[in-house]
């Protein structure tokens, strides 16, 4: 025992332990990327036990979402996209993607994320790894074709281009087009990537 009455070793959770864990995770994701970051390494960097990290975060995915301040939970996005038949996948993808962007808060946070990704190689790498694991890989598995990863990559490029056009550049008439009209027009194009 030490003079403070505590046993030596890892400190217990304190008032800002969660914040310290998030900061350590953000640094680790930035330095090592998504794949090479582990819960144990984050715990070590934050000066806490790995069990305490698990107390606050159920998984590395959840820690990533919090550390990167994502405006959405990619696992929920993937679940919504995959909830239905393959024949309607294109329409669901567009509906879910636009739904994330359409609220004022969602649009603000997505714009910030998009700008960060295009201006920072580190942020782009981290986001690419995380989004690939949590959204692109599950959708590729759902499509289940030999070139599924290429198809999903083309879908992502189409959607990112559309987001830049509508929400960042605000090119008319795309910027003010009705949401249902966009889904009706873009859904079949995305479905071509799925089944064409």
Helices and strands in order, then pairings?
Layout: H1 17-36, H2 39-46, H3 50-56, H4 60-67, H5 74-82, H6 89-102, H7 104-119, H8 121-143, H9 148-168, H10 179-195
Keywords:
196 residues, mainly alpha, Arc Repressor Mutant, subunit A, Tetracycline Repressor, domain 2, 2 domains, globular, disordered N terminus
Biggest sheet: strands, sense, closure?
Answer: none
Shape: globular
Distance between the termini: 69 Å
Low-confidence stretches: 1-13
The helicity comes to: over 70%
Strand content: under 5%
Structural class: mainly alpha
- What is the overall number of helices? 10
CATH architectural arrangement of the largest domain: Orthogonal Bundle
Order of helices and strands: HHHHHHHHHH
CATH superfamily of the largest domain: Tetracycline Repressor, domain 2
Mean pLDDT across residues? 84
CATH class of the largest domain: Mainly Alpha
